[in-house]
Design goal:
By secondary structure, the chain is mainly α. The protein has 20 helices and no strands. The longest helix is centred in the middle third of the chain and has 31 residues.
Length: 433
């Protein structure tokens, strides 16, 4: 998807160029023209409109993407049940790693508060100009439900009604959370009906591929959309947005490093009984491939080869865990999504309560299952988590320009997590056998 034509720049470079043009042009215009009405009109009616076309294409496919990705993801994981203890241990390790990654992200977001560095004047501009209905969403967020009510609302009375009202906040229950619960139930149910599930799975796979094509079209517009949105933001916020993004990138990279070099190292040392330093040396080729391609799926062949040759993991275990993990064990993505949601909430002046942060943890872990193993595959699911807790999803435009670097970094953590899980499962199985 999004393969560059011969002689053209790769998509991530085009997005970076769009970011640079939008930011530089916006800063220059802001410095020279100030609050000139003509600049404001151009920024709102031309630049922002171009960006909104890109964003709406992304929003358009969120519901079908969530339903297809999660249903298929769980249906695939459902086959784990047939493999008995191996599947159960793999699933448990995946949940533990994903939970740890999200908690690290949320902990850094609450401690460092990278989104709180924005001046109050700039924040008010962002609320009133960049996101027209931000005040309504902030008021809704302040009146958040109790933990028990939130848990009960996860089970939708009418999943179609929840889907229809999920993105505009008009759903009677938990919105996208209810859609995700229904998708999980469908995935589990499909694993229990044997061959009868094959036609349904085939239809969902075809629909999912079509949705990914639409996302590919949207991403081809991303350089223009990012340019317009960043121009709009910089004419409103000036140089503040540069420092804002620097703090955000630092927080995400710090979180990914902690998860990779602390959590994974401890797991490899204590569970897999391996030297963490040697472990990282053995899989260095995989990590470089993941960083360069930003794709768990594209890295899978290299991962399998390195695990077989360098780590000596049982092929039956290694191939199974790595194949499942390339789509379902997205620890770096889960950390990134949790931290990004809290960062954007801080940017818009929203303090999320305990129940909302628990929703972020749960959704970020589930979104890891539904994330496509391709560059930029997590962006629609970041929108999903934002919408579910009342944070203006249009705010994702703020971080679009730096996403490529973070995408490369979190993919590296994702792939490393797959191999760490395989090493742990292999050690546990060998100990029991």
């Amino acid at each position: 998807m999004n393969k560059p034509r011969e002689g053209s720049l790769a998509l991530h470079w085009r997005i970076l160029v769009g970011l640079a043009i939008g930011a530089i042009a916006g800063l220059i215009c802001k410095q020279i023209l100030g609050d000139n009405p003509s600049l404001k009109w151009f920024s709102e009616n031309i630049a922002n409109t171009i960006g909104q076309v890109f964003l709406r294409l992304i929003f358009m496919v969120i519901i079908p993407l969530v339903f297809c990705a999660l249903t298929l993801g769980v249906a695939e994981i459902g086959d784990v049940r047939k493999l008995g203890r191996l599947g159960l241990i793999t699933l448990l390790m995946t949940v533990l790693f994903s939970g740890a990654s999200v908690l690290i992200g949320l902990g850094l977001a609450n401690t460092l508060r990278p989104g709180a560095s924005l001046s109050e004047e700039s924040r008010e501009k962002l609320r009133k100009e960049f996101i027209k209905d931000a005040d309504d969403k902030i008021n809704k967020a302040k009146n958040s439900k109790t933990v028990l009510s939130t848990i009960l609302d996860v089970i939708p009375r009418n999943p179609l009604q929840e889907a229809v009202g999920a993105l505009d906040g008009s759903s009677p229950g938990s919105g996208l959370l209810g859609v995700m619960f229904f998708s999980l139930c469908m995935g589990i149910a499909l694993t229990t009906i044997g061959d009868k599930a094959k036609p349904v799975i085939a239809v969902l796979e075809g629909f999912y591929e079509a949705v990914m094509v639409i996302i590919g079209w949207a991403m081809n517009l991303a350089p223009f959309g990012v340019c317009g949105l960043v121009f709009y933001a910089t004419t409103l916020l000036g140089v503040d947005i540069i420092w804002l993004l620097a703090g955000y990138v630092t927080a995400v990279l710090l979180g990914l490093c902690i998860h990779m070099f602390v959590v994974y190292s401890l797991a490899v040392w204590l569970i897999a009984k391996r030297n963490p330093i040697q472990f990282f040396k053995d899989i260095l080729e995989v990590l470089l491939t993941a960083f360069g391609t930003s794709s768990s799926s594209a890295t899978l062949p290299t991962s399998i080869r390195v695990v077989d040759q360098n780590l000596g993991i049982d092929k039956r275990i290694g191939h199974f865990v790595l194949t499942i993990g390339s789509t379902a064990n997205q620890n770096g993505t889960a950390l990134y999504e949790g931290l990004t949601v809290l960062f954007l909430a801080q940017v818009f002046g929203q303090d999320l309560g305990l129940s909302q942060q628990l929703i972020v943890v749960f959704l970020s872990m589930l979104a890891g299952i539904g994330t496509a193993g391709v560059p930029g595959g997590s962006l629609p699911l970041v929108v999903l988590v934002l919408q579910s807790i009342g944070v203006p999803a249009e705010g994702i435009a703020i971080i679009m320009g730096v996403d490529r670097l973070l995408d490369m970094s979190r993919t590296t953590v994702n792939v490393c997590g797959d191999i760490a899980v395989a090493a742990c499962v292999d050690a546990i199985e060998n100990k029991r056998s």
